[in-house]
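ok so heres the complex, three chains, lmk if somethin looks off
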Amino acid sequence: MMAKKKKLQATQATKYTPYDVSGKIGGDAFEVIGSDASSMEAIARPSISFMKDAWNRIRKSKVAIVCMTILALIILGAIFLPMICPFGYEQQNVAFQNKPIMSPDSVTGQMHIFGTDNLGRDVFARVWYGARISLTIAVAVALIDCFVGVLYGGISGYFGGAVDTIMMRILEIISGIPYLIIVILLMTVMERGMGTIIVAYSLTGWTGMARLVRGQVVSLKEQEFVIAAKSMGASPARIIGKHLVPNVLSVIIVNITLDIPNVIFTEAFLSMLGLGIAPPQSSWGMMANNAIQVFQMYPTQLIVVALFICVTMLSFNLLGDQLRDAFDPKLRR
Amino acid sequence: MANQLRYILKRIIYSFITILVLTSVTFLLMQLLPGDPFTGGKDIPDTVMEALKAKYGLDKPVLQQLIMYIGNALQGDFGISIPDGRAVTDIIKDAFPVSFDLGVRALLFAFIMGILLGIVAAVKRGTAWDSGAMFLALVGVSVPSFIMGALLQYFLALKLGQATGVQVFSIVGWTDWHSKILPAFALAFGSMATVSRLMRTSMLDVLSQDYIKTAKAKGLSQRQIIWRHAVRNAIMPVITVMGPLVAAVLTGAFVVENIFAIPGLGRYFVTSVQTRNYTLIAGTTVFYGTFLILANLVVDIIYGLIDPRIKLTGRKE
Amino acid sequence: MKMKKILAMALASAMVLSLGACGSSDSGSTSGSDSSAASDGTEAASSAFPGTAEDDTYVVDLRAEPPELNSILTTDIASGDILREVMVGLYKLDENDTPQPDLAETTEVSDDGRTYTMTLRQDAKWTNGEPVTAHDFVFSYQTICSKEAASSYAFIVYDNLLNGNEVYEGTMDPSELGVKALDDYTLEVTFENPIPYAEHLFSFASYYPVNQKAYEEIGADVYGDDADKIVTNGAYTISEWTHNDHITLTKNEDFYDPDRCAVGTIRYTMMNDANTRMNAFQGGQVDCINLNADQMDQAEQLGIKTESYVDNGNWYIQFNTQKTDKGLDNANIRRGLGMAINTQSLCDDILRNGSVPATGLVPTTIAGANGEKYRDAVGDVVSYNAEEAKKYFEQGLQETGLSAEDLKLSILCDDQTSGQRDAEFFQAQWKEVLGIDVEITPQPFKSRLDSMKHGDFDMVYAGWSPDYNDPMTFLDMFTTTNGNNYGKYSNAEYDSLVASALVEGDVAARQDMLAQAEKIVTNDDAAIFPLYFSGVTYAVSDKVQNMTRTGFQEFDFTDAK
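and the predicted structre for the whole thing:
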C-alpha cells in the first residue's frame, strides 16, 4: 500500500514542476521552492489517536482527576496498608470491643485509628483488608465480564449469519434470567469464598457487554478499513484483535468502570442476606452489615465503612460518566 | 403490523424458553444442595425418612422429578414448602400482592421524582439546582438500600416519633399510610437516582436539538418548550430502563421488607435462602424470574409500539 | 422561583400518587393489627418503656413464623409456643417447668411404672363444639405412629409406646398400640419401658389430642396452615394469622379455666431483623423482644428492663474420633482442645445473652431424680483450665507422636454471624493457649449437618436442645449406634450404662448410671466438650405480667392464677 502511494506522489511531482512562469509578474517575484512530497501528505495538525484524544480530555476534567486520585489511593491503601498495619484483620481483643475512633489498644497501646468492632478487631485493618477483597471481587468480575463479553460479542458480530443468530438466541435466553436471583441461587448452592462469589457474579453478568460489543462490531465491520483489511487476507482473529477491539475499547472501558460499583453493591447486598465472604475475612458489605446492627450505639463503625463504600462508588460512577463523555465522538471538537 | 406481530411473537417464544431454562436450572441446582429438605438438628430415623421422601415424591429419579416439577409449575403448582406444609403457590398468592403494592409505590415514586429531578437539573444546568439534584442522585446510587432503610427507620420513624411525640411514620408493618411511606421511599431511592441521571442526560440532548431552537425562535415560552417539546421527547430513553428498574425494585424489596418487617414475598425469599427451604427457594425463584422476564417483555413491546424509530423486525441492539 | 413551585408541587403529587396508588386494595384487610402508634409517643416521656398502647393486649416478638401448627407434625419451638396457648394436653408445665395435671383429672400408675390410666375432665371442648374425649388421644397417637402421616417427630411417640415400632412399620395393627380409650373419659397409655419423665411427655405437643372429625374435614395436608384450618381446645384461640407478619390469639371464653389467661389478646409479631426489633420496642410497637449480644449495652444505656433464662440448649464441640492423622482419636488431645477455651469469657464477652459456662453435658434446667435438678445433684464434670489444657495437649501429642504443626485442624460451624463469631473466638483461644492454627469452615445449617452426617469434619461447633425433660435426651446421643453420634465415638462401658439406664425402674439408680455415662463421654474420653448452656435475654415493657419464659416454654401466658 505504501509503495503504491509513493509512486503516485512521484508522478504528481513531475506533472507540476517546474512551474511555467509567464505573464506580467516577473518571474523573479517568485522563488521556486520545489515540492516536498512528504509535506504535501502531512496533516497540518499533529495526529492524535483516539485514545490520546480521550486522555487529553479526561486530563482537563477536574472531576475525573479527583476520582482517579481517590481510587488510586484506595487501591494503594488496599494493597499496602494491611501489610504495615500493627493489627491483623482477624486479630481479636475481646476485652476491647466496640471502641470509638482513636483508641489506644489495651494490650499493645497501639492506636486503633477507626476503633474496634464487636470482637475487638481493628476496624482500620478490617476496612482496608475489606477494600482488598471487595475491590478484587469487583475488578475480577468486571474483567471476566469484559473478556467473555468481548469474545462472545466479537465473534457473534463478526461472523454474522447463522453463527450470530444462534449465539444471540442463546444470549437472549441467558440474559433473560434475572441477575440477582441467579446469583443468590448460585451462592446458596456453592461453597462460600471469594472464588465462588466471582464465578457466581460473572456467570450471567457478561451478557450486557456481549450485546454492546456485538452492536459495535456489526456496525464497524461494514466500514472501509475493515473491508480493506479483509480483502488483504487478514485473519478474523487479527481483524477482531487489531481493528475491531481498539474501536470498541471506549465502550468497554466505560462499561468496566460502571460495572465495578455494581459488583460492590451486589456484594454488599448479598452479605446482608448472609451470602457474602466467609469470616474471619472481611469485605465492605460484611462490615456494613455488621455495623448496621450496632450503629445506634456505635455509629462510627457504620460511618467508616459507609464512607468507604460511598466514596468508592461515587468515584467509579463519576469517572465512568466522565469517560463516557470523553469517548463520545459527538462531543469531540 | 405483520412485522410487529412477528416480533412480538418471537419475543414471547424466547421469553417462554428462558422461563423453561430458568425452571430447569433452578430445579437442578436445588438437587446440588447438600442434605435434603428434612435435614434438621436431630437425626431422623431411616424409616421416618423413607416415609417423608415417599410423601413428597422425592424417592423418584431426578429426571422424573424434574419433568413432574416443570409440568406442575406450568400449572402454577410449585409444590409444598416442607417445614410449614403450605403450598408454595399459596404463599406466593398471600405475599406477592404486598410486595407488588410496595414495588408499584416505589416505582412511581422513583419515576416521578427522578424525572422531575432530571428536568430541573437539565434546565438549570450548571446552577446549584443542578448540583443539588445530581448530588442527591449520586447519594442514591452510592448508598446500599439496607443502610438507607435502617437509617430512615431509625431517624425518621423512631427518633422523629420520640422527639415530636407524633408517630408520623410507623417503625414496622404494612398497614396504613404511616407505615408505607418509608419503605417505599427506601426502595425507590436508588432507582430514583438512576432515572434522574438518565433524564438529565436525555434532556440536555434534546434541548440542544434544532427543533427546540426553532421553537424558541418562534417565541414559545420557556415553560411551553420544556413541557411540550423537550420532556416528551426526552422521556423516551427513560422508559427503556423500566425493565431493569422493575428488577432492581423487586430484588431491593428483599432487604427493605426485612428491615420494615413487611410480610411480602421478598422476606419469604430471604428466609427461605437462609433456612435452605428448597421448594420455596425454587418456587420463588421461578416466580420472580418469570415475572421479571414477562415485565421485560411487556416493556419491550410497549417501547416498540410507542417509538416509531424502533424497527420491530428485529431487536435493535 | 417558578422552578421551586413546580418542584414543590411535583413532590407533593409524587407523594400522593405513590401513596394513593394502591390504597384501596389494602384498607380494612388488616385493620385488626393497626397499632395506634400516634398516641404512645407522648406517654413515652413519663415512663421509659410502658409498652404498646392497646388495652388488654400484649405484643410479643416470635422472630419467625411458626411453621407447623399441626401437633402431629410439629417439631419446632415457635410452633410449640403457639400450641401451648391454644391447646391443652393431659399435663401442663407450670412456671417452673413442672408438669401439673390438666385434662387428666386423676392418674393411676401401674406398679411396673409402664401403664398410666387417666380420667379426663368432662368440661373441655373443641372450638368446633365437640367434647374432648379419650378417643381424641387415641386418634392422635395412632396417626402420628403411621408412615402416611410422615411426622419427623414420630419416634418420640413410637419409641416410647408399647408396640410403637411394630405399628409404625406396619407389622402390627394400629389398635395394638399402647393407647386405649377405656371409655369416653378414661385413657390408658402403656409404655414399652418404665419412663420417669412420662408426665413431661404428656405435656409435649406430639402428645396433644387431635379432633378426628375436624382433622378429616380440614384435611391432613392443610391442617394447621391457617387460622381457620385448625380446631383447638385451649385457653386461647387463633383469631387471626397473617403469614410471616403476625398471629393473634384471643382468650377462649368457652374454656373451662378462663382465669389462667394473663391477658385478653396476645399478638405475636415475626420480625426477622434484630435492629428492627429494637427499633420497634423503643417505639412502643412491641412489648417483648429477644436481645442479642450487641444490644446489651444499648439496653442498659436506655434503661430497658431485661430478663434472662437458660433455654436448655447445650453448645459443645464434637470431635471426629475417626481422624487419627489429626490426633483426634486421642482423648488427651481432645480434652486439651476443649479445656483451652475460656468459657467464662465466651459467655461474658462474646455471647452476653444470659448463657452460662457448661459444667457438663446436661443443662441446669433438666429435672433429675426426686424433684432435684439433675445438674445440682450430679455436680460439675468439665471446666476451663488453660494450664491443664496445655498439659493434656502436650501429653496427647507425645502419645500419638504428632507435632502441633501436623494437626492442621479445622472447625465446622454455622455460617450465621453468631456461629462464626464464636468460632473466631475459639480460633483465637487455641492460638493463644495451645499455639495452634485452626481453620474455620462456616457452612449453612443444612450443609453443616450434612457434613456431620458424612463424618466430613475435624471438630464441629454444634448445639442440642432436649426433646423431653430428662438427662437421657442428652446422654443417649453418643452411643455407638445413635444417628446423632456424628463423631463415631464408641465406648462399650458408656453404651452399657445408657442401655441399663433405659430399662431401670429405680430413679436414683438410673440417675447414677447417667451421671457415670456423662462423666465418661465428656471428661474421661472428651468425645464432646460442652462449652455453655445457652441463654436468652429479652427486653420486656412495663405492662407485661404473668408471662412465663423458661427452658421448656419459650412463651407461656396461661400461668395466671
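quick notes: The interface with chain A takes residues 14-15, 17-19, 21-22, 25-26, 29-30, 32-33, 138-139, 141-147, 150, 154, 247, 251, 254-255, 269-270, 273-274, 276, 281, 285, 288-289, 292-293, 296, 317 of chain B (CB under 8 Å). thats all i got rn
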